[in-house]
Amino acid sequence: MSNEALHNKLGGDRITSRQIDELIGIARGVAADGQLNQTEVEFLQKWLAANVDISDQPVVRTLYDRVNAILRDGVADAEECSELLDTLNRFANRDFELGEVLKPTGLPLCDPAPVLTFTGTSYCFTGTFNYGQRKYCEQAVEARGGSCGGLRKSTNVLVIGAYATSSWKHSSFGNKILQACEWRDVGLPISIVAEEHWARHL
Predict the structure, then answer these.
(1) 125 has which bridge partners?
(2) Beta strands per DSSP E along 26-135
(3) 134-142 and 78-92 are packed helices; what angle lies between their axes, rounded to 10 degrees?
(4) Which of 52, 145, 154, 170 is deepest in the core (most CB within 10 A)?
């Protein structure tokens, strides 16, 4: 590697490190009171827009895309803010790797993973998704003839978002996973799958 290439790489690494530290600080700041509002989401969007082109961190692009999707209609509603708050909290606590889909080895997924169908099948989604906001995941299922809703005994498939970690039991979506496990253990026909597996069947 030439001196110029090394200098550029080290300079780029410093920029990326500084960006991530700043983004963690912003995430902690806006999430500190346990809620997000329209102004905070718009502030986050502006920061991400100013940094996305000079960052090689996938998490910056992922968050930017997510925030843009939330503000596409001009309004950050309560459900969207709640999902984004969960994402920011886990990012600020370094609870998932930066922009990487974590290996779901610690999750109680069905093994082997089942073949998924959609027509007449009831889905429930929990966690944070690479595919997009939960409502977009639900729309993908409904467009294929399936239905979506909260976790019930009649739910056929629980899909766990890609940004899940070994600490899922302590996360905001851990209760759904534990409940689904209990129902599965007593013989209810509910499958627990990772987002990646679900997405392959679309």
Answers:
(1) 159
(2) 122-126
(3) 120
(4) 52
